[in-house]
Amino acid sequence: MKKYIVTVKLKPSVLDPQGETVKRAIEHLGYKGVESVRIGKYIEILADEDLSTEKVTEIADKLLANPVIETFEVKMEDE
Question: Taking residues 16-29, what's their average pLDDT?
Fold first, then answer.
């Protein structure tokens, strides 16, 4: 069994209103020093040996990430 981790993030040039809201909430709680917060997605895919990293990359590109505003990274971990 293989485990793939897909991490999807907004491109640096894209505004992140959810991240800004979380940053303000952190400050409201009294924590200092937080410069920026960016929100992304963490996706786990469990698969049999037939699914390759290349195929998971295709899945991420076609379904899991919006290539106009997001980047993604695929990592494989052995289960």
Answer: 98
What's the longest Cα–Cα distance across the chain? 50
Neighbours of 4 (CB within 10 A): 21
Q: Give, in degrees to the nearest 5, the angle at Cα 52 between 41 and 71.
A: 30
In tens, the pLDDT along 50-65 reads: 999 999 999 999 999 9
Reported CATH class of domain 2-78? alpha beta
Ordered by start, the domain boundaries in the chain are 2-78
What 3-state DSSP class applies to 35?
A: coil
- Please choose, from the candidates 74, 75, 65, 63, the residue with its C-alpha nearest in 3D space to the C-alpha of residue 11: 65
